[in-house]
Amino acid sequence: MEVDTVLVKVASRCNINCSYCYVYNMGDDGWKDMPALMSQETIEALSSALKTLCSDQSTPFATVLHGGEPLMMGARRLAYLLSKLRGVLPLTHPLCIQTNGTLITDEILDTCAAHHVAISISIDGPKPVNDKFRIGHKGESTFEKLVAGIDRLRNHPKATQLYSGLLAVIDPLSDPAEVYWFLKKLGAPSVDFLHRDGNHSNLPFGKESFESVEYGTWLSELFDTYLSDTSPIKIRFLDDLMKISMGGRGVKEGIGQKSYGILIVETDGALTKNDTLKSSFDGADKFETHWNVRNDQLSKIVKTEEFSKYHRLQVPSAIQCKTCPQLASCGGGMPLHRWHDKNGYDNPSVYCNDQKYLIQKINTRLKEEGVIS
Predict the structure, then answer these.
(1) Domains of the chain
(2) Contact 275/288 with Cβ under 8 angstroms?
(3) N or C: where does the chain have the smaller number of CB atoms within 10 Å of the terminal CB?
(4) CA angle centred on 219, ends 226 and 192, rounded to 5°
(5) pLDDT tens-digit readout, 276-291
(6) Residue 299 near residue 52, CB atoms below 8 Å
């Protein structure tokens, strides 16, 4: 068992208020007990812990700064954090920031460039799509500030090094072709599309029932648009499904049967489970053991039975999944999408039928093109 990703919550608050956010608007309020920003002492402890992890495992891992909104740290504190992290993380170990883009400044970009930090920005589509859910605390638009941040990033002298891509949450009521062509115009090298958080007890937005395929239909139309583009941007979700259909392997959690070692570090240094589990129930991301980067060795944590039990959650337990011919491609989806208040995670993904619909669409197209038999 080795670590693939260390996701660091450097800020527990956010300057905008996306209505679908699992951190603030899905019933879990653990963020209220966290420091607003990671302290200098915790940054030093984190750096020491990551330095030890580099020595303990030979395989590189990625470190992703997250939140809340990580750029709420401000340029000076961010520069201190990045200098500490890059001081112990060689360039073989990716260092990334996931941001809503509204707080990007030239000073921040210069700092990220100096420390070889890649930046991914969250945006859901053109203004009507983006501002449907990604709004300010007073309900105001975030679109103009967001696009201005992307433009600033694109125009930076080190843009090729800095700009890693966009992340978009799917609105099944939007036009997938319109969303695709808009995001492509933003010059991103890749786009990662995410399903909305939800489960069997709290159906995702736009999904009528477990049997319905609103998201599968949307992604299938996106797939058609994707293949019609003679110079497409990368879409990791679709690329993974195609690679698996052709005998390869995916690189994204929730697709295929590969599992990943993911550590979450809170602003106080505490270690938690994947924070998307917050959408299941209040406290779903908490371990029984109170680990912290100030006191505990990361490589030892991932070898404990408690962490192994959490890691095994990535593997679906429902008999419907274990006997499904599409399991090699689907992988059972994300654990948070399997939750039901009555029997926990022992269910297929709430997106099961959407996945089957999309995988069938992809396989049919690949057969028509003579890529697979």
Answers:
(1) 5-312 (3.20.20.70)
(2) no
(3) C
(4) 70
(5) 898 888 889 999 999 9
(6) yes
- 142-197 pLDDT per residue, tens: 999 999 999 999 999 999 999 999 999 999 999 999 999 999 999 999 999 999 99
Q: How many whole angstroms separate alpha carbon 324 and alpha carbon 58?
A: 35
Mark 74-94 as b/e (b = at least 16 C-beta within 10 Å): ebebbbebbebbbebbeeebb
Which residues lie below 8 Å from residue 140, measured CB to CB, with a gap of 6+? none
One DSSP character per residue, 355-371 reads HHHHHHHHHHHHHHTTS
Lowest mean pLDDT among 28-37, 115-124, 305-314, 328-337: 28-37
Q: Is the pLDDT of residue 249 over 90?
A: no
Exposure of 167 by Cβ count < 10 A (0-12 exposed, 13-18 middle, 19+ buried)? buried
Q: What is the pLDDT of residue 279?
A: 84
The helix (run of H) or strand (run of E) holding residue 117 is strand 117-122
Confidence of residue 32 (pLDDT cuts 50, 70, 90): confident
Separation of alpha carbons 318 and 339, rounded Å: 11
Query: How many beta carbons lie within 10 A of that of residue 58, not counting itself?
Result: 7
CA angle 353/357/362 to nearest 5° reads 145
What token pair was written down for 157?
């002298």
Which tokens sit at 266? 């809170």
